[in-house]
Amino acid sequence: MFVVKVLWCLLLIYHLSEGKKIKGIRAGGVETEQRGVLREKEPHVSSSIFRLFLGGEDTCTLDPLQLHTLTSCGFNSSNPLIIITHGWSVDGMMESWVMRLATAVRTNLIDANVVLTDWLSLAQQHYPVAVQRTRTVGKDIAHLLQTLQEHYKYPLRNAHLIGYSLGAHISGFAGSFLTGQEKIGRITGLDPAGPLFEGMSTTDRLSPDDAEFVDAIHTFTHERMGLSVGIKQAVAHYDFYPNGGDFQPGCDLQNIYEHISQYGILGFGQTVKCAHERSVHLFIDSLLNKDKQSMAYRCSDNSAFDKGVCLDCRKNRCNTLGYDIKKVRTGTSKRLYLKTRSRMPYKLYHYQFRIQFVNQTEKVEPSLTISLTGTKEESGAVDITFNEKISGNKTFTFLITLDRDLGELMLLNMRWEASPLWENVWDKVQTIIPWRTWERKRLLNVGKVSVKAGETQKRTSFCSMTNEGQMEASEDIVFVRCKEERPKRPRRKDNL
């Protein structure tokens, strides 16, 4: 993983250093052109190429100055409009994810107009130069939308701009140029680029002001040598940070062989950009796997989320990642966190495991293994590790993620895995000192145990079948639903 991050950073540093030779780039890496309504006396000549996606590998080129091309290509002003914009290009080639995303959108929205923004001629430059051109491409998109609005009465609220990396900020600039009464309906930023945008004002990057609703997915924000490929700061109404946002499972260098088997000689490049591009595939996943939508939860940071204290959906504290997000405008950006699998479908089910210890007189640092049984599935063994010794009365909370839906929780099995070192010491003590002098055994005094399912928001309390809640080392104890939580049988009506 370290090697992958270093390779990314070295590549960016090289292009950033080359960019210093170029005059006219401001500190923020973008042009000084002010936002405003597009009012130009001369016809706008686009630097970008717009292609209407027809399916498969087929596209049809649209020219906003030649209105007949919209008709001949089959643009339908009654249908939603999705504009997909790629990011910085090293080799000048359109990346394969663009067609995969376009296909997924068309599969999900059969009647949608899917338009691809091709700005490769500007994107294949040293990174700072490409950054400088983002406003130009944003203006191109704004002119296309303005043409549709003026000549086809197309409502901007029906437009959804999806931008990856630099394309995310381009989409934001497109929205900022359209300063009329109506805004673009939605902008989705897929791991918006970090270098030369991190820490910038809202006018110099993607921001919630650029559309009626803005969402962003951050997947590669880990900082090395002062740089992060994806932007860390919140830039939307809802900002999603899968797996903390800094790196993604399945993107380590050890996965290069898997990538080579899947992508051939391009596998190495796929490993390098894996975490950055994961944002795209998470969005595609939300379109293809409608029955496995990934839920994310608002939290102060990833550390708090890992403790399992943030699985709350009240007051819009949770939302669906991807296309089917609940579009709620908020005054401030909301940061949401979730865990995912390393491959599609990415969904994991989140559970909050809470355990209370009471009257614990002996300090113990236990390692527990639990398994949950529901009406649909069993969880299998899940290890719970404590980072501190337990004593007195204390409650601990953990986050558990599973790749299956257990259904309604019915049974909890818990085992205290004793430390091999402690067991060895204990055996020697029993050998030296007669057992009868050691009548008091090491015990864990377990009080209340509860499990909350994030996806259903249902909390289930468990009670020990022995009603004592005392555990010995290497002992299995079965917990069942507490009596007050067991499903009630319907009363039988007596015949009158």
Automatic annotation (TrEMBL):
Gene3D superfamilies: alpha/beta hydrolase, PLAT/LH2 domain. InterPro entries: AB_hydrolase_fold, Lipase, Lipase_hep, Lipase_LIPH, Lipase_N, PLAT/LH2_dom, PLAT/LH2_dom_sf, TAG_lipase. The active site is at 165 (nucleophile), 191 (charge relay system), 276 (charge relay system). GO terms for biological process: lipid catabolic process. Ca(2+) binds at residues 205, 210. It comes from Oreochromis niloticus (Nile tilapia). Its main location: secreted. This is Hepatic triacylglycerol lipase. Its EC number is 3.1.1.3, 3.1.1.32, 3.1.1.5. GO terms for cellular component: high-density lipoprotein particle. Keywords: Calcium, Glycoprotein, HDL, Heparin-binding, Hydrolase, Lipid degradation, Lipid metabolism, Metal-binding, Secreted, Signal.
